[in-house]
Amino acid sequence: MRQAAGFTLLEILIAVFVLALGLIGGTAMQLHAMRTRHESALLSSAVRVASSLADRMRANAAQLPAYLAIDYDAHAEPSPAPPANLCLATPCDAAGLASLDAYELKRQVRATFPAGRARVCRDAQMWAGGSLRWDCSGEPSAPVVVKVGWRGKRPDGTPDTDAAGSYAPGVAIAVGAAP
């Protein structure tokens, strides 16, 4: 009797199943890597935007009250209104420069982050429950903080909110101790 050479149908089905599992695993890993890269890029941009405003605030420290009034939510206020003077044709005073800085921050947050938000406030307790929070303590002796964030999503596509249903800031940069 002659022995048949080759593969059986069962062996082929098992090989195709193992190959499919490998492809699904590789695809899931690639999607996770892309999501992580995007989140990293957003965090890097948030640090850049917040640090830039912090430097501008240090350079124009006399206008601190104008900066402390910044609380911009691109989801609620889609297009920020430009200041009366953009400091191009005519020079700006310190108040005009603070107004321009606030406008530039809002414009950057709007352009860079998905439904982004930026807030400048005095806050001694930026963290609550292991994550940053938008609320500010407002104590006069608290350091000035620049907070930047966006409406993120979890890997399954659901909104990345805390237990209270709000989005946490991605970055909080302390400008310095209270004057």
Write the layout of secondary structure elements.
Elements: H1 9-59, H2 64-68, E1 71-73, H3 94-112, E2 117-122, E3 127-128, E4 131-132, E5 144-149, E6 169-176
Helix pairs in contact: 1-3
Transmembrane segments: 6-28
Protein name: Type IV pilus assembly protein PilV
Domain Type IV pilin Tt1218-like: 28-102
How large a portion of the residues is in β-strands, by DSSP E?
A: 15-25%
Q: Tally the beta strands.
A: 6
How would a crystallographer describe the biggest sheet? 4 strands, antiparallel
- Give the averaged pLDDT, no decimals: 87
Uncertain stretches of 5 or more adjacent residues: none
Helix coverage percent of residues?
40-55%
What's the domain count? 1
Major sheet: order of its strands?
1-2-5-6
Distance N terminus to C terminus? 98 Å
Going by helix content, strand content and strand pairing, the class is alpha+beta
Rough shape?
Answer: elongated
Helical segment tally? 3
The sequence of SSEs as H and E is HHEHEEEEE
* Radius of gyration, whole Å: 25 Å
Give your account of this protein's structure.
This protein has 179 residues and is of the alpha+beta class. It has one domain. The chain is built from three helices and six strands. The chain has a four-stranded antiparallel sheet, covered by helices on one side. The longest helix has 51 residues. The protein is elongated, with a radius of gyration of 25 Å. The model has no long low-confidence stretch (mean pLDDT 87). Keywords: Membrane, Transmembrane, Transmembrane helix.
Describe the structure in brief.
The protein has helices at residues 9-59, 64-68, 94-112; strands spanning 71-73, 117-122, 127-128, 131-132, 144-149, 169-176. By secondary structure, it is α+β, with helices and mostly antiparallel strands. The chain has one domain (9-174).
